[in-house]
């Protein structure tokens, strides 16, 4: 009887130790998760981050993510520099480059890119401007063009369009309106003549009849690295493992996004599921029946494994220098830390 009691006691102790070990391991795993804040815009083009969050890819990398949403690129760059945001995905701007020059920010990967055969950013004009004969980009000389801020991606695109058509932005009236929503309102009401924007917004505007399409950005910048992944210089240099884990999770989200809505290899069922996931973040104030087509329309390629088109980044940097928006002596190494992804 005593022997049985001892065996029972030993089993009970062993069971308790196993349970404590398992509980402790779970607690340690939870405690080890790194909390990060990710900057984003409520655009379909930012979907890989949302996919990675919803499917647990960030969690798999030991990351606890909180999103902070912005309405333009430059404020996000400032938030990265100040430490309010850890990682951002948006277009390169003059503000971002200037912060990189100050040692605050580094581009560490690529995201959205123009690709032949896939609808990209669309050149739009107001219906009033179209009726006045502005039916192609070559006729934008002397007309107004909406941008968020000087040194924004919209400014860069306007300049490249003008350059290829044989004039310059000095021959246009650039109208800085700070926020994408303000540009939309100004274009629809005819307060500005023209603009360029990603397809999920452009195609929705075209359906309303207040704006008209006159061209595609890909015809002017065919290899445009539209958005990049960036972080603080401190994270890039002192916490490279954190950056690598973020990029790994982000890239998995991009793979799923590309498969479902760009390559359409997951069939209609996969596309529908992806739209439902993205709808939590994009056009969330609209019923999915209305938001769904716009989300699908915004499906542009996101670079596999966050590969970075360094050739186009150099072109962007050169343009910012030529416009006097950043210092002449800033190098690509100042802006980009190329240790994390493949470049081309």
UniProtKB/TrEMBL annotation:
Pfam families: NMT1 (PF09084). This is ABC transporter substrate-binding protein. Residues 1-32 form the signal peptide. It is found in: Periplasm. Its main location: periplasm. Keywords: Signal. The lineage of its organism: Bacteria, Pseudomonadati, Pseudomonadota, Alphaproteobacteria, Sneathiellales. The keyword Oxidoreductase does not apply. It comes from Sneathiella sedimenti. Residues 44-256 form the SsuA/THI5-like domain. InterPro entries: SsuA/THI5, TAT_signal. It comes from the Bacteria. Belongs to the bacterial solute-binding protein SsuA/TauA family.
């Amino acid at each position: 009887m005593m022997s049985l009691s001892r065996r029972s006691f030993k089993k009970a102790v062993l069971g308790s130790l196993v349970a404590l070990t398992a509980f402790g391991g779970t607690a340690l795993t939870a405690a080890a998760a790194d909390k990060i804040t990710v900057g984003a815009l409520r655009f379909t083009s930012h979907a890989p981050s949302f996919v990675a969050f919803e499917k647990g890819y960030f969690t798999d990398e030991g990351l606890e993510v909180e999103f902070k949403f912005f309405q333009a690129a430059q404020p996000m760059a400032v938030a990265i520099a100040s430490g309010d945001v850890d990682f951002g995905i948006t277009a390169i701007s003059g503000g971002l480059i200037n912060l990189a020059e100050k040692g605050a920010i580094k581009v560490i990967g690529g995201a959205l890119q123009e690709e032949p055969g896939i609808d990209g950013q669309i050149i739009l004009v107001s219906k009033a401007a179209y009726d006045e004969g502005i039916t192609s980009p070559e006729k934008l000389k002397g007309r107004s063009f909406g941008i968020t801020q000087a040194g924004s991606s919209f400014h860069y695109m306007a300049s490249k369009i003008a350059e290829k058509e044989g004039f310059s932005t000095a021959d246009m009236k650039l109208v800085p309106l700070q926020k994408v929503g303000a540009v939309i309102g100004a274009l629809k009401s005819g307060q500005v003549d023209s603009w360029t924007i990603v397809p999920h917004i452009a195609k929705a505007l075209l359906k309303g009849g207040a704006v008209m399409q006159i061209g595609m950005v890909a015809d002017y910048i065919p290899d445009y690295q539209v958005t990049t992944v960036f972080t603080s210089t401190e994270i890039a240099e002192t916490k490279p493992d954190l950056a690598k884990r973020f990029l790994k999770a982000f890239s998995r989200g991009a793979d799923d996004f590309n498969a479902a809505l760009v390559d359409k290899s997951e069939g209609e069922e996969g596309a529908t599921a992806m739209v439902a996931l993205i709808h939590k973040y994009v056009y969330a104030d609209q019923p999915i029946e209305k938001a769904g087509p716009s989300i699908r329309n915004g499906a542009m390629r996101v670079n596999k494994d966050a590969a970075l088109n360094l050739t186009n980044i150099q072109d962007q940097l050169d343009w910012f220098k030529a416009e006097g928006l950043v210092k002449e002596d800033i190098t690509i190494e100042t802006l980009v830390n190329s240790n994390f992804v493949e470049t081309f």
